[in-house]
Design brief:
Layout lengths: L3 E4 L1 H13 L13 H8 L12 E11 L9 H15 L4 E5 L4 E4 L1 H4 E2 L2 H11 L5 E6 L1 E2 L4 E3 L5 E4 L9 H9 L30 E5 L11 E8 L34 E7 L5 E5 L17 H14 L20 E3 L4 E4 L3 E5 L7 E7 L9 E5 L3 E4 L7 E9 L12 E6 L10 E7 L2 E2 L4 E8 L3 E9 L4 E9 L2 E8 L6 E9 L2 E9 L1
Parallel strand pairs: 2-3, 2-4, 2-6, 5-7, 6-9, 15-21, 23-29
Antiparallel strand pairs: 1-11, 8-9, 10-11, 12-13, 14-16, 16-19, 17-18, 17-20, 20-21, 22-24, 24-27, 25-26, 25-28, 28-29
Length: 513
């Protein structure tokens, strides 16, 4: 390949303007094929690939928001995107894990930046040198994401859904992979002066500009390269376009959807005049996310070789992957429709095997559009003291570990808040039941107490304002006993039945119709 260096501020300004006028764009990574990849493709057997081994790779995730701390990509959505990333790399034998938890950055200028050099320099200053780094922002120069050869990768929040493959696409760039349509970003010329005409035979060569992604920023410099156009018969596949012979010819450098055969609707014409349609399954193409799903065998080999040869530091301290996290979360407190103290709710759930972290969310609505509680925890309980009185809330939990983030949320459970003392466990109390929990006014109900120690205290019926309706002293002995209580004719609505002792208090709901 021949590299052409022009020094002129005018040309650089034109290129800079063209780049901005093309937004939004699927990928901001400029056309490039590294010298390392050229060397690898000429003699791949000279490089370590170790296809049968699992490469466990640390990933440092930087979640960027505004200066005020708002606008961060939600943690559960990061986990979903990370799950998809690992699924995309599973066949390649590469497993990423979240290193040192998700890093929180409050920087408005980076969260919404419009200059690659600003982003690249910031990443260099902030990145962990011993891991792969991804910065998740609101606007990465108007793209879904980009990777810079001399820096790291940016990922846009809007392109990081659970069905998006942008993250895998940018990691592919970071591990040396070009687009399969290398060079076609400017049509048949880097400056767009010769547009692509797919109805006529493509030229033998095209030129492309990768100034912004050269190894370092060079003031007033334009860097242009040439690439051979890949032919359908693959007679030049070893040196044309991306240089991989198992990625078919592709000239489409804008976002496109695939047909039922997972091919482009756009027909193209190679230099020999042969018609073809692009393969939509390749993650490194610009096909829509519902089409893209794989790396080719040669691409996977190149990425593994790149890690061994160019990023050995990320493989030096191999971690043993933790087992997958189970999704069945047993919720303990608050129970379904349980009434709790508004000013002190201790959320509890059973520990989940293999989980090292939990997400806890509480919302007024079952769809969780706005959150009253949104906590990332290492323990399986959390106490919150600032819910509103007399409200209905929903809560849910999600468990995960740094290797396994594909687990789902638990089913949400509804509870209400009331003016009562904080719920606490009573030592040696095994069970406290109220049945039936729904009854007609004036009817009686039963309370069952089971304990390993004697309990002396009172049973109270109170409304949600904390007003006591009935009080009855008890002297409970060891074992199981059932107590009968009556409701008054005037009682209507939701009440709390409480067992109050010097060792603690517990409450159960009672609905009187």
């Amino acid at each position: 390949m021949k590299k052409i260096f022009y020094s002129t501020s005018i040309i650089l300004l034109i290129i800079h303007t063209l780049a901005y006028n093309q937004k939004p764009y699927p990928c901001g990574t400029a056309p490039q094929k590294s010298e390392w990849l050229e060397a690898f493709q000429k003699n791949p057997t000279a490089y370590k690939i170790a296809r049968d081994s699992l490469l466990v790779v640390p990933m440092t995730i930087h979640s960027v928001g505004s200066d005020s701390g708002s606008g961060h990509f939600a943690t559960d959505r990061i986990l979903d995107a990370f799950c998809t990333l690992n699924e995309d790399f599973e066949e390649a034998g590469i497993l990423f894990y979240i290193k040192d938890d998700i890093q929180i950055i409050n920087n408005s200028a980076i969260n919404n930046h419009t200059d690659y050099y600003v982003g690249g320099r910031y990443m260099n200053e902030t990145a962990d040198p011993n891991s792969i780094n991804t910065f998740i922002v609101s606007n990465p120069v108007g793209n879904c994401g980009y990777n810079i050869t001399w820096s790291h990768m940016m990922l846009g929040k809007n392109c990081a859904g659970p069905s998006d493959h942008t993250w895998a696409h940018e990691v592919g760039h970071h591990f040396s992979l070009p687009h399969p349509f290398l060079g076609w970003e400017g049509g048949q010329s880097y400056d767009g002066s010769i547009p692509a005409d797919f109805s006529n035979p493509a030229p033998e060569k095209i030129t492309y500009n990768y100034t912004q992604f050269f190894y370092e920023w060079a003031e007033d410099t334009l860097i242009v390269d040439t690439a051979f156009v890949e032919k359908v018969d693959r007679s030049n596949c070893e040196f044309a376009a991306d240089g991989f012979c198992d990625t078919p010819a592709d000239y489409i450098a804008n976002r496109w959807n695939c047909n039922n055969d997972l091919q482009s609707n756009q027909t193209q014409t190679d230099p020999n005049g042969e018609k073809f349609q692009s393969d939509g399954t390749l993650i490194m193409s610009y096909s829509d996310d519902n089409c893209a799903r794989r790396f080719s065998g040669e691409q996977m080999a190149a990425m593994r070789a790149y890690l061994f040869d160019q990023r050995p530091e990320v493989l030096e301290n191999p971690q043993t992957p933790l087992a997958a996290v189970e999704e069945n979360i047993q919720m303990i407190y608050p129970g379904v429709d349980e009434a709790v103290a508004f000013n002190s709710v201790e959320f509890q759930w059973e520990e989940v095997p293999n989980a090292t972290k939990y997400l806890l969310q509480v919302s007024r609505l079952p769809s969780f559009p706005q959150l009253n509680v949104n906590e990332k925890l290492e323990a399986n309980s959390f106490t919150f003291t600032d819910l509103e009185l007399g409200r209905t809330y929903y809560w849910r939990v999600r468990a995960y570990n740094e290797f396994s983030t594909c687990s789902s949320w638990s089913d949400s459970q509804k509870f209400t808040t009331a003016e009562i003392s904080a719920v606490a466990k009573i030592d040696a109390l095994n069970d406290f039941k109220v049945f039936p929990s729904i009854l007609k006014s004036g009817n009686s109900f039963s309370i069952q107490i089971d304990s390993d120690k004697p309990i002396e205290g009172t049973i109270q019926i109170m409304d949600l304002t904390g007003k006591v309706v009935t009080t009855e002293a008890i002297d409970h002995q060891i074992g199981t006993q059932v107590y009968k209580m009556n409701t008054a004719e005037k009682m209507r609505g939701l009440y709390l039945v409480g067992l109050l002792t010097e060792r603690g208090k517990v409450f159960r709901k009672l609905i009187v119709d």
